[in-house]
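Title: Comparing notes on inverse folding

I've been comparing how different people in this forum approach sequence design from structure. To keep things fair, I'm posting one structure and asking everyone to reply with a full sequence. Here's the target:
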């Protein structure tokens, strides 16, 4: 089942089904308990009525038990013998004994001699009895479920057992029942209604869940369809529709469009980079080829120095492009601990061909020192690119200052050249950007030095900024976090 709508509908249906089954069982149990308690109360009333008669020494065969079919009665003595039963009671269970034939004790209440016929005389009613001495137990009765057959009809009953003591001190137990047929019919009716309604409710739940999920996922399908179209057309300028809601789907659409915007920008930068790189590579290659062709035809006209210069420039450009490609691929910087002042001094000492001497000022390190963590080669490349840029624009001085600042170290390269216009101070860090368009390519470079420097600084967790240096010149500051 691959459809989210189908899984959602099935899950909701299963959960509702389990909830309904649990609620239905609980309702049936509560209903059955209440009806059983009502039947028990009726049985207790019938048992106490019979027990009251026994307490008044009413003879066993004259006990009035009411409706025998609704309230079958069985009376037992202390030894468990059955001494009286209601009329037409043919069988019973659940009362402790299943006998239904009375077995009165030898001295039955209300009988003063052996002639049983005297029981019919009016003078024998309560003869020798002392109604004040008999009593009915006030304790809660015992309840049990059982069956009884009355006049050929067998049914389930709720029995209540109540004790009574007659005037002679004989303790008798009255078992009176109340039918459970009403309880069983009610429970059966409710159960049948629940079983009949359950499939309908589940179908409604499944249908509503399907429709609601379909409506909720419609924007997702629109996003998927548009993404498929963008993939097929390779047109990254297109965007997926954003719902007006503020839910997760709307946030997904916005995030998708932000991703497409970033991807479009990245692809555009890559295309410009490839185009600019191709253009920059074409010039030294064409120049070198021309010189070699001329040298092949006229060896005496071969400009060896020019060919070497073009080759060096081509090598530097290829190295720059390779480093940018590695940075774009996410190459992580090294984790070597470097002393920034020593690195700057070493880099400056190797620049023997600079037209303007470089002054190095290293301030006393603070508590955190001037140590940074990173790639020695890449950081040296940044310092070299900043010095190359300063040498290209300086008039008479280039200064490098190294100092501790805000939990890190700063390398500030200052020149006294024309400076960078404030409106162009962000643009100069873009690739293949040169502000002096009239400058010769050989002197101006390809416009990758500052772009590489900022990318390396960012990869190391630092930053590279440019500002004015007083009345003339520019000041580039490289900040790097200190070692930990």
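Reply #1:
Here's my take.
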């Amino acid at each position: 089942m691959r459809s989210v709508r189908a899984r959602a509908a099935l899950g909701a249906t299963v959960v509702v089904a389990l909830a309904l089954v649990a609620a239905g069982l609980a309702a049936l149990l509560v209903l059955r308990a209440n009806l059983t308690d009502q039947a028990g109360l009726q049985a207790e009333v019938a048992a106490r009525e019979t027990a009251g008669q026994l307490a008044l020494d009413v003879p066993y065969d004259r006990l009035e038990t009411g409706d025998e079919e609704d309230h079958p009665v069985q009376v037992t003595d202390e030894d468990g013998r059955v001494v009286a039963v209601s009329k037409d009671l043919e069988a019973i269970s659940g009362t402790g004994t299943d006998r239904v034939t009375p077995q009165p004790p030898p001295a039955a209440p209300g009988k003063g001699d052996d002639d049983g016929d005297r029981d019919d005389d009016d003078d024998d009613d309560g003869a020798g009895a002392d109604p004040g001495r008999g009593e009915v137990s006030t304790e809660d009765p015992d309840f049990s479920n059982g069956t009884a057959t009355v006049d050929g009809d067998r049914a389930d009953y709720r029995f209540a057992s109540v004790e009574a003591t007659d005037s002679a001190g004989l303790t008798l137990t009255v078992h009176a029942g109340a039918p459970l047929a009403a309880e069983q019919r009610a429970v059966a009716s409710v159960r049948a209604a629940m079983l009949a309604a359950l499939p309908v409710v589940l179908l409604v739940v499944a249908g509503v869940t399907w429709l609601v999920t379909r409506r909720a996922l419609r924007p997702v399908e629109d996003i998927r369809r548009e993404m498929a179209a963008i993939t097929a057309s390779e047109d990254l300028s297109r965007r997926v529709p954003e719902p007006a809601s503020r839910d997760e789907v709307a946030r997904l659409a916005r995030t998708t469009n932000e991703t497409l915007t970033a991807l479009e920008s990245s692809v555009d930068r890559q295309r410009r980079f490839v185009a600019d790189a191709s253009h920059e590579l074409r010039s030294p290659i064409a120049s070198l080829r021309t010189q070699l062709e001329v040298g092949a035809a006229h060896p005496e006209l071969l400009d060896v120095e020019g060919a070497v210069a073009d080759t060096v420039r081509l090598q530097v450009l290829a190295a720059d492009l390779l480093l940018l490609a590695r940075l774009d691929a996410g190459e992580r910087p090294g984790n070597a601990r470097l002393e920034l002042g020593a690195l700057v001094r070493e880099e400056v000492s190797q620049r023997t061909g600079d037209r303007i001497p470089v002054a190095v000022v290293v301030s006393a390190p603070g508590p955190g020192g001037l140590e940074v963590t990173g790639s020695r080669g890449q950081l040296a490349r940044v310092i070299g690119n900043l010095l190359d840029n300063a040498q290209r624009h300086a008039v008479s001085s280039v200064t490098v200052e190294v100092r501790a600042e805000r939990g890190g170290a700063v390398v500030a390269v200052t020149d006294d050249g024309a400076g960078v216009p404030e409106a162009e101070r962000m643009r100069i860090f873009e690739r293949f950007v040169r502000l002096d368009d009239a400058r010769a390519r050989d002197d101006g470079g390809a416009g990758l030095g500052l772009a590489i420097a900022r990318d390396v600084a960012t990869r190391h967790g630092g930053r590279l900024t440019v500002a004015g240096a007083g009345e003339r010149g520019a000041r580039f500051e490289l900040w790097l976090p200190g070692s930990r």
